[in-house]
Amino acid sequence: MGQWPGGARGALCLSFDNLGVDAASSAAAALPGLLERLAERELSATFFAEGVNAELDPDSLRAIGAAGHEVAYHAWLHEQWGELSAAGQAENLARGVSAFAALGIELSGLRPPGGQLGAGGVAVLREAGLRYASPAGAGAGVEDGIALLPFQWRHVDATAMLPGLDPVREEMTGSPDQIDPDTLTAFLSREIEENEQRDEFISIVLHLPLLAWLGESNLATILSQLSSTRSWVGRCDQLTDHVLSHPEDFSAGTTLDPSSWG
């Protein structure tokens, strides 16, 4: 794996998906408190937001940026990205890039809902001016000038309950049954700690609408673990800068995962 800045043991991106569809959503209501908790621990995160938020809740997007976090793209209305045609992906991206630009937000990356890049691959991202993608998979890499910063389903809070991910839960706990918040938190804490030994890249994926389910205590545990790890914790755009500047360190590339919640 690549050499990380400052001699860090591995790298992590803390990310939050699904801002919701308007300022009245439970996700948007949870945002101010979350931003306070991140500031208390001096943690920077990437928020993958649906494009429609640029029209319906621009204040939340501005608040994220003003707090020093990255705003990235999660499709316009959380469309299952891998099911869109290449032309459909390009149209979706163009609409999102334009809407965010009107707020002074330049998008660097996409996390495809469902985890799959699909027909457009990285070419449609490059043509839209993006620099990275965060699909389902493992191992940071570079493909045709686009950084790949994948997530693994075992590091996603929604995996605890989504029916299509029974095999992942069985790998995590030995059972396909749904996972309670305490069990998920203990698992993520171990993964953050063990990443120091693996010296790899992982992305912790939490969803704003699920923060109430996760609970304040469990969120605090995860954030505390991240603030004390010897791994480099950065925004996805910061990690992208490093990966694209040192492509030789990431020649092993990314192994994409065809699994999806869909």
Strand percentage lies at 5-15%
Count of alpha and pi helical runs: 10
**Mind telling me the CATH class?**
Alpha Beta
Structurally, how many domains make up the residues? 1
Radius of gyration: 17 Å
CATH architectural name: Alpha-Beta Barrel
**Main beta sheet, described?**
5 strands, parallel
The CATH homologous superfamily name equals Glycoside hydrolase/deacetylase
Describe this entry's structure for a reader.
With 262 residues, the chain is α/β, with parallel strands linked by helices. The chain has a single domain (5-159, 190-256), classed as Glycoside hydrolase/deacetylase (TIM Barrel, Alpha-Beta Barrel), CATH 3.20.20. Helix content is 39%, strand content 15%. The chain is built from 10 helices and 11 strands. The protein has helices at residues 26-40, 53-56, 58-66, 86-101, 123-127, 166-173, 181-198, 211-214, 216-228, 236-245; strands at residues 11-17, 46-49, 70-73, 109-110, 132-133, 137-138, 141-143, 146-148, 201-207, 232-233, 255-256. Strands 1, 2, 3, 9 and 10 form a 5-stranded parallel beta sheet that branches. Helix 5 (123-127) links the parallel strand 4 (109-110) and strand 5 (132-133). Helix 7 runs parallel beside helix 9 (216-228). The longest helix has 18 residues, at 181-198. The radius of gyration is 17 Å and the shape is globular. The model has no long low-confidence stretch (mean pLDDT 94).
